[in-house]
Amino acid sequence: PYLFLVVGRRMGRPIPIHFAHLIGIFAGFGFALKPHFALVWVLLELWLVIASRVRPTVRPENGWVGAVLVAYAVSVFVLTPEYVELVRRFGALYLSFFRNSLVQTLLFGERSRLPMVALLAYLALRKQCPRPALLTGLAVATLGLLVVATIQQKGWNYHFYPTAAAALLLLSTIVVTVRRPLTSLAHRVYGVAVFGVVVAVMASAMLVSAWRLSDPRGPKVEPHPEYWELEDLVSQRARGSRILVLSWAMGSAWPLTYATGAEWSMRFPSLWMMWVLYANQFWQPEPIGYRSPDSESSQERFLREAVTEDLERSQPQLLVVFATAPDTPASGRRRLDYLAYFSRDPRFARQLEFYHYLTTIGMHDVYERVAEPSAGGTLRPPPRDLADQPFQPHPGRRAPLFDIVGMFQLLMLLGAWTFALATKWHWGKPAT
Asked: Is 174 helix (H, G, I), strand (E, B) or coil?
């Protein structure tokens, strides 16, 4: 709504004042979701000022956006000062987690291609469309969101989702409003290309949605089939009870925790910090050397003590641990032995005695809490080669291009291009 409000201002359309107030309030909450999004707000406002050639003014929607952002920032310091301390402690560490270069993130991030295609199409066809302000507003939003995703330097799907959605809206607007016939070769090439991309993306989205509805436990809902077995086990043994998951990966605990009705018992959503703290040892030939309490950083000490305290406090019914592979370079990040690492703390080791090894499902070992501690300590499965387990994509890399959905998208793209050329879509009547 805020984007189209800005476009409406640029086109000189009258905006009811109550709509401006309401949109400004909701836009403030939207921009507050992540500080990076404020860049989109700034870019849209700069475009409006430059394109309209008027002096900047504080409009109702801008006033509300600024007020909400200030109120949000103040509330963080007042209501959740612990969060500020957490950011101070782990913020720099998080920037190193799966960090890619800006160029690598832009070129190979998930969903990053669609926004770039949309921006190129905008540059080529903007003069062929009767509503340039609408297209330019969409292009500015697409560009801003693309920059937001890129500067995070992760390349993850959800980082690029907002810019991909804006790009699809931009491409669809071009297809609907472009003036035809497209007489120049460049215009025809871009016009047909955009038509094909929009059709392919729309068709594949409907296919995947239908696939997910027809097969709720299929690979397009959860790519790792062993997840469902783990979900069933946790649901049977820990529904309504607490669980604790020791893993660097968010996917080990989520959506497992809320899908099974279990309660989360740790202050961290995952142990991604351990990945960063020991990533420099993953590929060395020597065994991983966990730092002693005397040599560990304040960040690592806080992490170790926090996990131990959470285990003592919550005493979860199930302990789910990312399985340990042999301590060799071939195992990479799977070399991390979470139980061995935390058991160096006597408090954690005492609590671990109350857990009995239950089973291994996929890449996770499951332990269940018992009434009496084991006299001989907790039995553990030996480290094992996990190479035969289902492939888990690197969070910073794209999934394989030509899976069944990728093949369908390619066929739809080729089919749409063929249809456009066969029907001479580019020679059609001007859009109204």
From this structure: helix
